[in-house]
Amino acid sequence: FFHFAWFMDVTRIAVILGELLDEGQKPLLVKDVIQGLNTCSPDFLAKIHSHLDKLESNQQCSLECIFSYQEDDFEFLTLCRPSASAITSLLANFLQPPKNSDVTLNVILVYAGLLTDGSAHWLLPNFVLTPTFFVDFIQHLSTLHPKPDDLENQPSHKPIRLHIGIGSVASGGDWRHVVGNPLQPIGGRSFQVSVNRCRSTAKPKSNKPTDTSSPPASLFDFESFLCDMMSKLPDPYCLPLSQALTMRSPSDPTLKVSRPCIY
Question: Which region is the signal sequence (predicted)?
Fold first, then answer.
C-alpha cells in the first residue's frame, strides 16, 4: 500500500494570463482566475485546497512562468503572457499520460485576460489561442502517443479529465464546442471534457451532492495566495495593443482586434 494515494490521480493546473488593455485592469486578473476555478468540479477544488499550505509564491521560473510548484501527483503553474511555444510546451507536458494506467490524469486550464468578442478566443502577445488550434494540437499529441498495440490485453486506461475555465464568459464562447466534439485519445486514454459548467456526457460519477450556488470556501483562502502572486507581475504588465495579432490556425490568417473586450 506504499504511496497508494499517488496511484489514484495526478492533477495539473495551469493559470494562463493574457493581454490587458492597460495597467488598471490588473486587479481583474484575480477575479477572473477565481471565477474560472469556481467552474471546476468539487474534487478538483479539494485537490487545490489540500496543497494550499505548500504553495509559496516565490518560485518564479522565467518571465513567462511566474510561478511553478510540482509534486509527483500535483502540479501548479502560472504563465504570464505566454508565447505560442510556451503554450505548446505546456500542453505537451500537462497532457503527457501517467505511465500507470490506473492513474486518472486531471488537467485544469484557467484563462484570465482579454478575449475576442463573441468567440472568447484568448488574446496572447503574438497569437490568438483558439479552440481549433487547441484541438489540432491534441490531435498532434495523439499521433505522438498512440494507444498501445496490446491495449486489449491490458487493464482499461483511466481517462484524462480536462477542464477549461474562463471565468469572465459564462457560456465559454467557442470553447464549449470542444465538449461536443470528442478529442482524439492520447496513449489510449479517452478525454472527459468540461468547459465552465458545460460538461461531456461521460463525466465521472459521484455519490456526493454538489452545491454550485456559492463559491467553495477553499477559494477564499486561495484568493490571498493569488493576490500575493499577482503582486509580482511585471511592471509595466504589457504595452498597449497597437498591431494585428496572428491567428495560429491551419490557414494562419491575421485577426485584427480593433476593440478587444473583457466580458
Answer: 1-18
DSSP track, 102-119: TPEEEEEEEEES-B-TTT
- Each residue's pLDDT tens digit, 132-184: 999 999 999 999 988 776 556 566 789 999 999 998 898 999 999 999 888 99
- Are 155 and 102 within 8 A, CB to CB? yes
**Can you give the pTM of this predicted structure?**
0.82
Residues contacting 148, CB < 8 A, separation 6+: 154, 187, 188
Is the CB of residue 64 less than 8 Å from the CB of residue 79?
A: yes
Q: Which helix (H) or strand (E) holds 93?
A: helix 84-94
Look at residue 209 in the predicted model and tell me its pLDDT: 45
Looking at the domain assignment, is residue 242 inside a domain?
no
Q: What span, in angstroms and rounded, lies between the C-alpha atoms of 26 and 23?
A: 6
Residue 166's H or E segment, with its range, is strand 160-166
In 3D space, the residue among 121, 134, 150 whose CA is nearest the CA of residue 184 turns out to be 134
3-state class of 199 per DSSP?
strand
| pLDDT tens track for 89-103 | 999 999 999 888 889
Residue 61 lies in a domain: yes
Range of the domain at 87: 9-146+156-199+216-232
Q: Does residue 256 lie in a domain region?
A: no
Domain membership of residue 245 (yes or no) is: no
Stretches in the chain below the pLDDT threshold 50: 1-7, 202-217, 244-245, 247-263
C-alpha cell of residue 157:
486506461
